[in-house]
């Protein structure tokens, strides 16, 4: 006669794998292609193409913090803060009536993410992809010769996509590398009654460490 499985054993077989929390921090090299800035300031209306510089290693540095709740072995949800940066080229800014224009403390992007990983694909190496939507909360630093804007603002929607590979050091710690692209639509208020609108895309190569529990 076959031995019957106990109720606890049946529950264990039916239940999904225990959820896992993963906390990740990273640094990286980040750039941003040219984009247009539009609006008005003390010099009048402007509409100029601006060259941006990321200066990833200069203080405050480019970095990110991500928390992911892995509901299964392959699917996770989480939140992320990406502290990106852009510095406007002085010659381009002068055409728009600015002495300086920076989003450098930083071009902060907060997103809610969906993550997909592929365990056991390459042994200790686990490829993953992810995407998220959220908001841009940059520190706007703009000088137009008359007014100086220097404050955090909620400037518009944002989105990101990424792909990378993590390497398990042990059951708790992992290293990872990834490529990440981020888009933000920014509409900022300038001191003196002016406005600034610009869409910014950042590209980044990130290296980081994750802790799982």
Verbal overview:
The chain has 213 residues and is mainly beta. The protein has one domain: Porin, CATH 2.40.160.20. Helices cover 7% and strands 65% of the residues. It has two helices and 13 strands. It has helices at residues 7-14, 90-95; strands at residues 20-31, 35-41, 44-50, 52-53, 63-70, 75-88, 100-117, 125-136, 139-143, 148-152, 156-168, 173-189, 195-212. Strands 1-5-6-7-8-11-12-13 form an eight-stranded antiparallel beta barrel. The longest helix is centred in the first third of the chain and has 8 residues, at 7-14. The radius of gyration is 22 Å and the shape is elongated. 34% of the residues are buried.
What's this model, at a glance?
With 213 residues, the chain is mainly beta.
Biggest sheet features? 8 strands, antiparallel, barrel
Task: Assign an overall shape.
Answer: elongated
Radius of gyration: 22 Å
Which CATH class applies here? Mainly Beta
Q: Could you tell me the strand content as a percent range? A: over 45%
Secondary-structure blueprint:
Elements: H1 7-14, E1 20-31, E2 35-41, E3 44-50, E4 52-53, E5 63-70, E6 75-88, H2 90-95, E7 100-117, E8 125-136, E9 139-143, E10 148-152, E11 156-168, E12 173-189, E13 195-212
Antiparallel strand pairs: 1-5, 1-13, 2-3, 2-13, 4-6, 5-6, 6-7, 7-8, 7-9, 8-11, 9-10, 11-12, 12-13
Task: Name the descriptors.
single chain; 213 residues; mainly beta; Porin; 8-stranded antiparallel barrel
């Amino acid at each position: 006669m076959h031995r019957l499985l106990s109720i606890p054993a049946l529950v264990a077989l039916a239940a999904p794998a225990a959820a896992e929390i993963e906390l990740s921090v990273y640094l990286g090299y980040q750039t941003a292609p040219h984009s247009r800035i539009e609006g008005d300031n003390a010099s009048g209306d402007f509409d100029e193409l601006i060259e941006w510089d990321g200066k990833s290693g200069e203080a405050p540095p480019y970095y990110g913090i991500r928390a992911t709740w892995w509901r299964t072995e392959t699917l996770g949800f989480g939140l992320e803060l990406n502290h990106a940066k852009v510095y406007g080229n002085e010659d381009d800014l002068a055409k728009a009536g600015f002495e300086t224009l920076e989003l450098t403390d930083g071009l902060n992007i907060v997103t809610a993410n969906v993550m997909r990983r592929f365990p056991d694909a390459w042994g200790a190496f686990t490829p993953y992809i992810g995407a998220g939507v959220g908001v841009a909360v940059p520190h706007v630093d703009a000088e137009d010769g008359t007014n100086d804007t220097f404050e955090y603002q909620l400037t518009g929607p944002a989105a990101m996509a990424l792909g990378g590979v993590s390497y398990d050091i042990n059951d708790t710690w992992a290293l990872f590398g990834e490529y990440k692209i981020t888009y933000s639509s920014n509409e900022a208020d300038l001191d003196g009654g002016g406005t600034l609108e610009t869409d910014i895309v950042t590209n980044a190569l990130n290296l980081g460490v994750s802790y799982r529990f």
